[in-house]
Amino acid sequence: MAADHARTLLRQSRSVLDTAYEVGLSGPGRLHDLLITHEAMSPGAFKAYGRDVEIGWGWHPSPFGACLVLETGRGICGLAFAEDGAKPAVAADMFARWPDAHFVHRPERAAQRVQQIFAPPGSPSVATPLPLLLIGSNFQIKVWEALMRIPPGHTVSYQDLARFIGKPGAVRAVGSANGRNPISYLIPCHRVLRKSGALGGYHWGVARKQAMLAVERARYRDQPSEKPSTSAIE
Questions:
Q1: Domain ranges of the chain
Q2: Distance (Å, rounded) from C-alpha 52 to C-alpha 54?
Q3: C-alpha to C-alpha distance for 112 and 176, rounded to whole angstroms
């Protein structure tokens, strides 16, 4: 994406996210064509939830490479991407985030989730609620909830995101929380750019971030900006 074009998109997207912010960061909204619900939990609460809590995991192909899905009985808690040769390292990265959990290989369930997440618009599966379990500090969760308010096809800067959560001086902390997002794509940290319009970093590769943005721009560029829907995030 050219920097000038990216800066134009940033300017246009500010008003869209302002509307979302006015409705409420935890209020209803729609991510892609998926019906998303989420529950938030602090690391301490997650530990109390069960030292040996079971997390199912599995890989399945996606439009952006091999996709790793991790899911508890209360929702998806992790989503990552990797090239084939990097799968063991990526899995280890994700497993290390919840060292007290018991991981169970469930490739069939992961395949179902990946197919649901990346189903074409209008597919019956996108009408099925997709629960997320956000495990992080209060600040991290606030950032991740704000990310879920960025409509597909739009981008914001780290400065914008900090302002939207009421912490304009916490740009660096917002960037750190963005980088620690455990549920990539569904919590769309790829929609955050540098103020200059540069792509910035992405935990799963800048080329993958660029591809995600390109697909979203192509899919949503002809759709007018609207206020968030009233039927998704709770």
A1: 3-33+138-220, 39-130
A2: 6
A3: 31
- Supply the pLDDT for residue 187: 96
Please name which of 224, 193, 213 lies closest in space to residue 153, comparing C-alpha atoms. Answer: 213
- What percentage of the chain has pLDDT greater than the value 70? 79
CB 55, CB 98: distance < 8 Å: yes
Distance CA 115, CA 38 (A): 19
Known catalytic membership, residue 189:
yes
Catalytic entry in 9, 79, 189, 213? 189
Note the CATH number of domain 3-33+138-220: 1.10.10.10
Compute the CA torsion angle 37, 42, 46, 49 (nearest 10 deg): -90
Report the alpha-carbon distance of residue 38 to residue 187 in Å, rounded: 10
The architecture of the domain spanning 39-130 is: 2-Layer Sandwich (3.30)
Collapsing DSSP to helix, strand or coil, 226 comes out as: coil
CA distance 203 to 181: 9
CA distances from 180 to 115, 183, 189, 234 (A): 25, 9, 10, 22
Give the DSSP letter string of 118-153: TPPTT-GGGGS-EEEEEES-HHHHHHHHHHTTS-TT
Rounded to the nearest angstrom, the gap between the alpha carbon of residue 4 and the centroid of all alpha carbons in its chain is: 25
Q: What is the pLDDT of residues 181-193, one digit of tens each?
A: 999 999 999 999 9
pLDDT score, position 82: 97
pTM: 0.81
